[in-house]
Amino acid sequence: MVxxxxxxxxxxxxxxxxxxxxxxxxxxxxxxxMRENCRFQYENCPAxxxxxxxxxxxxxxxxxxxxxxxxxxxxxxNFKRHKLFSVPEERQLLQATSSGTSGRYSTIGFVxxxxxxxxxxxxxxxxxxxxxxxxxxxxxxxxxxxxxxxxTAVTKTAFGATLFSPALSRTYALKYxxxxxxxxxxxxxxxxxxxxxxxxxxIGGRGGVSGFPVRFxxxxxxxxxxxxxxxxxxxxxxxxxxxxxxxxxxxxxxxKEQVDKEELYRLAKKTLDVDEENIIEFFGAVEHPILYCDCxxxxxxxxxxxxxxxxxxxxxxxxPIGQTGLVNLxxxxxxxxxxxxxxxxxxxxxxxxxxxxxxxxxPYLEIIGRVGLKDIKTCAAGAVELLDEDxxxxx
Amino acid sequence: MILTSGKLYDSSxxxxxxxxxxxxxxxxxxxxxxxxxxxxAAVEVLREKILSGEFDERIDKLADSxxxxxxxxxxxxxxxxxxxxxxxxxxxxxxxxxxxxxxxSEQKSTIRTHVxxxxxxxxxxxxxxxxxxxxxxLEGLLTGNVNILKLPQADxxxxxxxxLELLQIEPGLAPYIHVFDTPSEDIAAMQKMADMSDGIVVxxxxxxxxxxxxxxxxxxxxxxxxHRLGFAYLSGYEDRERELTALAGHxxxxxxxxxxxxxxxxxxxxxxxxxxxxxxxFLPYLQRAVDELGQxxxxxxxxxxxxxxxxxxxxxxxxxxxxxxxxxxxxxxxxYGRGCSLTALPDSALECSYxxxxxxxxxxxxxxxxxxxxxxxxxxxxxGLVCDRDRREELxxxxxxxxxxxxxxxxxQSDAFVGEAHDGEYALRxxxxxxxxxx
Lengths: 395, 439
Hints:
CATH topology of the largest domain in chain B: Aldehyde Dehydrogenase, Chain A, domain 1
Shape of chain B: globular
CATH architecture of the largest domain in chain B: 3-Layer(aba) Sandwich
Largest sheet of chain A: 7 strands, mixed
CATH class of the largest domain in chain B: Alpha Beta
Strand content of chain A: 15-25%
Largest sheet of chain B: 7 strands, mixed
Structural class of chain A: alpha/beta
Structural class of chain B: alpha/beta
Shape of chain A: globular
Distance between the termini of chain B: 47 Å
Oligomer: heterodimer
Number of helices of chain A: 10
Radius of gyration of chain A: 22 Å
């Protein structure tokens, strides 16, 4: 029986928290919002209920922060195999999908209230990080150009990020080719645009005429490759003051080539004259649409809207702060889909907030790798198929 | 890199070389038949060279490169050297190809049967075992065949290096060895190689075998060495402590990656309580075995995390697949160790485990063995049989009747011996033809 719920009062309270990193002081508020969300999912999503029942878990058991560890979590891979919704699809305002590098992707539905909370969150975090500006800006999107057939969250958020300030232009690094019916990289186009936007006194006599700041948004890997190419060609530009490089969307297939962040900062300074404090990194997944934005020391502090549990790689039980394990992300933001506790395939560590030194005391998450098997040689039937199955879940 | 008729060529010349290959092969086969003794003598020299330490530096370099896993490589070389002894090769030929002579009909008949090579073999080797591509070619050479070898993508250069060494020792083998590094996607090239061959030898999983079946003409002889599944069966003990230790040691040592590795431990019972009880009892044995081996390079935190995640994700899938009316008749039990685990499941399916010391435990009473295991015909290979003494004969017969081809004791499921059959067959026999000739 579907019970009518009131409008997620506890969630509203949590997302109305004045300071976005008052994480420690909002523990109980968070637990109450989670209990409220869990109860809604339990009563409206039969699949979620089955999962809870199989663990003999009832929403009412969420009473204290330490109870969050017992809340059944759902790995992102299961969202790829099953569409799980708690609100009928016709009542969802929006659906977003993960990139689906393996050909399979998760579909996450949102209702108005979910997006409303998301908007509040983006406004608060954006304000904290100084992302909003009234100065018109040229945007370089190091990601996909929106296209009808592309429903991925990463495309939507990259586009969303071009709304932080009035956009004069948008240049995309990945364009959809109608002929090939696929996306193609166009780094040359980006470099040409940059030359146009760079300040007139650019080194080497290459001058721009615009004078308006430039903002990058998109995949760190593409951004890094572009900067490296510019360095190799000896291109040194000076972007106007107020220019920023925003990175998000994960390292995708270049994960193995994950560069030292310091190297990226060095390249950005050298080729575009953008200082480290103007490089901002985001982290997120469609299955956990909380905006993780780094602090000035480039650490991902956990905002009030979510919590992170690190779980043991053998037993999947929560481990104490400071230990490496699987990253389990929790949030009561979304009502339409039971994503209140999802397990990523990232490996990470949670650190005490004060170790950062930026002034925030909310703990911060460091992603240190990803689950996976290295070149395995086997002649056991089915093993290769098992090992090949891609569990990529990054959005 | 391409190796043909004793010379190395760049991969870009593949088209040209393939166009002329059949003519060359025909010339060779018209002219002569390769004798096993030529191959055995060459292998003997190569073996002595390796034993004398001539290749130690290169082996060390390969081991250090990380492409093969140092201990693994050395262990495998030692095993290979034993197999390649002259007397062992001769024995293999005799056992696998030996024909009875002097039988009652022979005395009266004027017809004699000769063992001749199939002709040209096209080997599609998998990268799942180091040295396998060379071994496959060697079996082809021993039986006198011309060999076309398509290297696996993950070969790392070892195969060509060994074959080049062999060719230096015996240049007469050159017309019988043609190696291509063709990628598996290049269907057209593989089609050509298949078309000029009398037999196609394929190593690999279901996907590889299916791909070759699509490639081959109806008249081609397919020699498939597919992947198999191993398991253990428990029905009482002769010596509980020793047998459980041996079983755990084998699971840990082979990391469940071999065809003969134990993926599932079946218990002779219908009661899940007994399955849970076994898990509880066996987990400390498995933990000890895993600890004794120490952490392997491959089993990083990432591997363990991946396995734990898959196990959990599968469990969620199973929960979601249950109908709403189905009461959880059986609880699902995962018994966690560090770097190992046992998962108790209520079904009796033979399936691949989560590998690396993460074994499945299921119930399978004796009365259901036959019908249950018959479903996996084509995949059955080794059973590690643990049972009390007076049941061994009966269970052995039953497993043999089901289609198992290795019925071993716990712990020795993967032990090799000279003259053993491969997946229930004498490999060399598949690479030859029997030719009857009337005198």
